[in-house]
């Protein structure tokens, strides 16, 4: 082998991380932390089904739900190491790679789930899909879950009711500040540990969309759920840039077409799934649902809003402004 040929094959090896022998299907491991019967879980399975139908023999998808392959503490590193090829972490989990996505965590920023969807379709959000390019993370799409509700062992009607309680949060500095703003203690824990922490009393409360509460049985250990809709928990479907560009163009285009289709299905169904799960909680009778009057909601808002100012520098005032324009 000449020097040039050796160098070329080294380059090819570097840029095609997972392709084994020619003719073998490309394997896409899609790992996530939630159950199958959730917006993200269903999206992952639909992606697998459509790829099996349309790219049989060329691409093989393996879905690993419930943190069964990697959990949220190490999934991004696993993606960068090309141990998994697709993830859809919550937008709260990218702190280490970009500060801009923290905009999605700002409390009371979006009026409702439709407003978030509008923002996800705006130019600013399309740009944010590229905000982690320097780290080799390539954003493919936004997937919806839903608005978060506060839950606890105590009725949370006023912000003062949260004082002194510990809340499980995702690893996000904005969410940390949000709970500190109501004199509560935020505790960062991987999703896989949330139920146990609530059940054992290590923490007394948390925040989740209805689908995550039900699929983790959290309602069985949270006697009170406040319908606060105070923030959003949506996802970014991401891949490893080097892996993605190593896929032959024609196959990659087909995969991107499938992703568009799945994204539309997920985003169309997420709200209905969350409403179904809200009904399931009511039917289970384990938790009292607490409605907030407009004045009570305003009181939570007033307490949590200062968080916006403290993160404006990191996120960018332009990003926050762009997000605000989607409210009607
Ligand atoms: C959480 O950790 O609460 C969520 O990010 C889990 C998820 O993926 O919905």
UniProtKB/TrEMBL annotation:
Q: Which UniProt keywords apply?
A: Signal, Transport
Source species of the chain: Stutzerimonas azotifigens
Designated name of the protein: TRAP transporter substrate-binding protein
Signal peptide annotation: 1-20
* Stated family: Belongs to the bacterial solute-binding protein 7 family.
From what superkingdom does this record's organism come?
A: Bacteria
Q: A Pfam family this protein belongs to?
A: DctP
């Amino acid at each position: 082998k000449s020097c040039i040929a050796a160098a070329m094959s080294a380059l090819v090896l570097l840029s095609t991380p997972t392709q084994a022998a020619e003719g073998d299907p490309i394997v896409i491991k899609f790992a996530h932390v939630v159950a199958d019967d959730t917006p993200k879980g269903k999206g992952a399975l639909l992606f697998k089904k459509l790829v099996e139908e349309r790219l049989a023999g060329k691409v093989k998808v393996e879905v690993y739900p419930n943190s069964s392959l990697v959990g949220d503490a190490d999934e991004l590193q696993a993606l960068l190491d090309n141990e998994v090829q697709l993830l859809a972490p919550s937008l709260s989990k990218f702190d280490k790679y970009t500060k801009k996505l923290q905009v999605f965590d700002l409390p009371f920023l979006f009026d409702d789930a439709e407003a978030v969807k509008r923002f996800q379709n705006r130019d600013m959000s399309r740009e944010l899909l590229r905000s982690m390019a320097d780290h080799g993370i390539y954003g493919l799409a936004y997937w919806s879950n839903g608005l978060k509700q506060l839950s606890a062992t105590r009725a949370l009607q006023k912000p003062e009711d949260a004082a002194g309680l510990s809340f499980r949060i995702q690893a996000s500095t904005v969410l940390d500040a949000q709970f500190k703003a109501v004199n509560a203690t935020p505790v960062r824990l991987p999703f896989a540990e949330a139920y146990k922490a609530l059940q054992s009393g290590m923490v007394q409360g948390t925040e989740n969309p209805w689908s995550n509460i039900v699929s983790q049985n959290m309602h069985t250990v949270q006697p009170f759920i406040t319908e606060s809709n105070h923030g959003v928990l949506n996802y970014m479907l991401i891949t490893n840039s080097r892996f993605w560009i190593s896929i032959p163009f024609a196959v990659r285009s087909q995969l991107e077409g499938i992703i568009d289709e799945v994204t539309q299905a997920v985003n169309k169904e997420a709200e209905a799934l969350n409403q179904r799960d809200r009904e399931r909680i009511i039917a289970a009778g384990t938790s009292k649902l607490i409605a907030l009057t407009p004045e009570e909601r305003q009181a939570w808002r007033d307490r949590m809003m200062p968080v916006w100012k403290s993160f404006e520098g990191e996120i960018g005032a332009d990003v926050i402004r762009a997000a605000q324009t989607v409210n009607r």
